Amino acid sequence: MTDITQETISMPRINERAPEFDALTTDGRKTLDNYKGKWLVLFSHPADFTPVCTTEFIAFAGRHNDFQAINTELLGLSIDSHYSHVAWMRNIKEKFAVEIPFPIIADLDMKVAKAYGMIHPGAADTSAVRATFIIDDKGVLRAMVYYPMSNGRSIDEFVRLVTALQTSDANGIATPEGWQPGDKVIVPPPATASAAEARVNEGYECTDWYFCKKEL
Question: Can you give the pTM of this predicted structure?
Answer without folding.
Answer: 0.90
